[in-house]
Amino acid sequence: MRRGLAIFLIINLLGIAFLVRSVFTLLTLLVEDGSADAIHSPEIPAPLSPLIENMPRLIPKIIHQTYVNESVPEHWREAQKSCIDLHEDYEYKMWTDAKSRELIATEYPWFLNTFDNYSQPIQRADAIRYFVLAHFGGIYLDLDDGCNRRLDPLLSYPAWVRRTAPTGISNDAMGSVPAHPFFLLVIESLKSYDKNWQLPYVTVMSSTGPLFLSVIWKKYMASSKNVGDGPGGGRVRILMQDEYNRHAWSFFSHHKGSSWHGKDAKLIFWMGGHWFMLTVAGFIIAGFLGLGMWWVYVRLLQLGQRRSQGGISKRMWSHARLWGLQSQKDYELLQRHEV
Q1: In the predicted structure, residue 334 carries a pLDDT above the cut 80
Q2: Which of 71, 82, 171, 264 would disulfide-bridge 201, Cβ 3.0–4.6 Å?
Q3: Nearest alpha-carbon partner for 43 in 311, 200, 230, 239
Q4: Do residues 118 and 127 touch, judged by C-beta distance below 8 A?
Q5: 207-241, pLDDT tens digit by residue?
Q6: Directed axis angle between helix 121-135 and helix 200-207, to 10°?
Q7: Is the preceding omega at residue 166 within 30 degrees of 0, hence cis?
Q8: Can you spell out the DSSP letters for 103-172?
Q9: Is 149 exposed, middle or buried (0-12, 13-18, 19+ CB in 10 A)?
Q10: Whole-Å CA distances, 26 to 126, 225, 239, 294, 297
Q11: Is residue 205 within 8 Å of 212, Cβ to Cβ?
């Protein structure tokens, strides 16, 4: 029994270790706050401060945005206009579906098949933002991100992304120099993360969306490349919530609009709001499953022992019977000899 228990525990521990290893990066995201690479408020001069002119400018003055075509919906035009009006000296690039595909076909033909075969249009909108930052550099903004102030201070870092809640980073506002190693890793990783998880929201988030970007970010942080803030530096800085859109002096304002999220997203959001309850329930279910597996294992051992004992009993009975028959024959021969 002790040997059986040891085997059972080893098998379960190996299974748990495999599962933990499979989701280890996701688990580390739960405790990652991005503070080590945060862009702190004291680093950012006030909107009209002359100190801005003395800051280095590494990122090109380009604003990238994406939409199906050039006809941006009314509910996003105010946000779009706020960024264009504040940055007349910036180049503005609107990446329509046709222009996005043309860039991929011309510059990144190795990715065209994956790009064309994404099941959700938002996946192509996600992917193209990584490619344009890796290719041209600049600042990418979602159409629902309006500008509260000029973005010049954010040009001083080789690359930056923004912190999101409850964990990880988002892909709605990002900046980079051309060919930054982080965004090169991002576009290189897109093909291997192209998996269909049946639920559209989960598929998008994990293949091209913020969850995908957060996983690649954690892997990049673990490498030796996440160092250096100057020209040629590889560090990725994090724009925190306060600097993003929580105050009048923050860089951005959020404008509501239509969403690609479906019914499955509502389920995911509900799960996110009840994560503690679901975690406890998961441990309880795992405990019952473990007990059930142990009961089945013990029953199989007992059944095997009974069969083994039954086989021994039959062999002993067979030997005894043969010995009895032999003894009887010897006795009969003895009697005949005496007669």
Answers
A1: no
A2: 264
A3: 239
A4: yes
A5: 999 999 999 999 999 899 999 999 999 999 999 99
A6: 10
A7: yes
A8: HHHHH-GGGHHHHHT-SSHHHHHHHHHHHHHHHT-EEEE-TTEEESS--GGGGGSSEEEEE-SSSSEEEE
A9: middle
A10: 20, 21, 21, 29, 32
A11: yes
Q: Is 7 helix (H, G, I), strand (E, B) or coil?
A: helix
What does the block give as tokens for 201? Answer: 């929201």
Structure token pair of residue 33: 């706050």
Please state, in angstroms and rounded to a whole number, the distance separating the CA atoms of residues 151 and 298: 66
In the structure encoding, which two tokens stand for residue 111, read together? 């990715």
Cα–Cα dist 167/211, whole Å = 9
Percent of the chain with pLDDT over 70: 74
User: What is the number of other CB atoms lying within 10 angstroms of the CB of residue 268?
Assistant: 14
Contact 196, 277 (CB under 8 A): no
Q: What is the pLDDT of residue 85?
A: 98
Sign of the C-alpha dihedral computed for residues 21, 205, 121 and 101 taken in this order: negative
| DSSP state at residue 212 | H
Q: Please classify residue 328 by burial: count the beta carbons closer than 10 Å to its beta carbon, then call 0-12 exposed, 13-18 middle and 19+ buried.
A: exposed
In the block, tokens 């604003």 appear at 63
Q: Nearest-CA neighbor of 157 among 81, 71, 281, 243?
A: 243
- DSSP, collapsed to helix, strand or coil, labels residue 232 as coil
For 53-98, the pLDDT digits (tens) are 999 999 999 999 999 999 999 999 999 999 999 999 999 999 999 9
CA distance linking residue 99 with residue 94, whole number of Å: 9
pTM over 0.85: no
